[in-house]
Specification:
mainly alpha, 13 helices, disordered C terminus
């Protein structure tokens, strides 16, 4: 919603200011200029990227859309679920949660958290490492190295769409100039027209420069930056899981392990220690300790 609002404010400000200064929107409607600029940018985007980067860019909004919901309530739920899971594993051994991990969709424990269960990034990361802990006797440093490597690879892949769009935004002003130059060439080639029509043709040509710059800095660059922010939210989620699971492997009690995870969160989404304690103890109607 914020990206839509921001793009609308940018467009309304630019065009509204133009109209208020006495300009007319009619001459700005130049579909052929738009075709040249957007088509050239799209062609350059395809030429500059492989299939992986193109698919990642096209699917970026759908992939990272859920990260906009990673707020304080979400992390309270997450830390509460981790507490219940680790508490059960501590009391009954990791084998006790094997059934939950093998089929999370049918797990009574995970069923308490439908919002978390519907997040594939969260569930896949957590379940994969719990399976490893159940199957292998990993040291904390070994697990940490593996987690860090996976998060780093995720971050690199998540950066592909933003990097591709930033490069497109860098090129759009140049394509706008190309469209404007072609328009001027067309105008100057029409030697048999009068000064009035010649002025209109040159004005239409200059719209290309406006479109290239506006699309670059008013549309594509903000989208690229938004994808970067969203991927950062996903990385923060993975680090929260990583820190909590590592604390468990080191033998730290569940209530302190989730405190480690809380410390890994950004201050804007980080619940207070009191809020977390009340949550994991079943306060305010939230799920409490998991039963055996």
């Amino acid at each position: 919603m914020l990206i839509v609002l921001g793009l609308f404010v940018a467009m309304a400000s630019a065009l509204g200011g133009f109209v208020l200064s006495g300009g007319s929107l009619g001459p700005l409607y130049q579909p052929t200029e738009l075709l040249m600029i957007v088509g050239a940018a799209l062609g350059a985007f395809i030429a500059a990227n492989n299939g992986k980067a193109i698919r990642a860019t096209l699917g970026a909004i759908a992939t990272f859309r859920r990260s906009t919901g990673y707020d304080k309530a979400f992390y309270l739920e997450l830390l509460g679920m981790l507490y219940n899971l680790l508490n059960k594993a501590r009391r009954e051994s990791l084998l006790a949660v094997e059934r939950d991990v093998d089929d999370p969709q049918q797990s009574p424990l995970f069923a308490q958290y439908p919002r978390l269960l519907d997040d594939p990034l969260l569930m896949n990361f957590m379940v994969d490492y719990l399976r490893l802990l159940i199957s292998l006797s990993l040291q904390a440093h070994e697990l940490d190295e593996l987690m860090q490597h996976e998060i780093e690879e995720f971050e690199n892949e998540a950066h592909l769409p933003a990097d591709a769009l930033h490069k497109v935004s860098d090129g759009l002003p140049a394509f706008g100039i190309v469209a404007a130059v072609l328009g001027v060439v067309k105008a100057l080639s029409a030697v048999d027209v009068g000064p009035d029509l010649m002025g209109q043709m040159i004005a239409h040509a200059l719209v290309g420069t406006f479109l290239g710059i506006y699309l670059a800095y008013g549309v594509v660059a903000p989208l690229a930056s938004r994808i970067e922010r969203q991927s950062g939210e996903c990385v923060k989620l993975l680090h929260c899981l990583r820190v909590t699971l590592l604390a468990h492997v080191k033998g730290i009690p569940p209530q302190l392990a989730v405190e480690f995870g809380r410390k890994a969160l950004h201050s804007a989404e980080r619940p207070s220690a009191e809020e977390l304690e009340n949550h994991v103890r079943g306060g305010n109607g939230q799920p409490g300790l998991a039963t055996a």
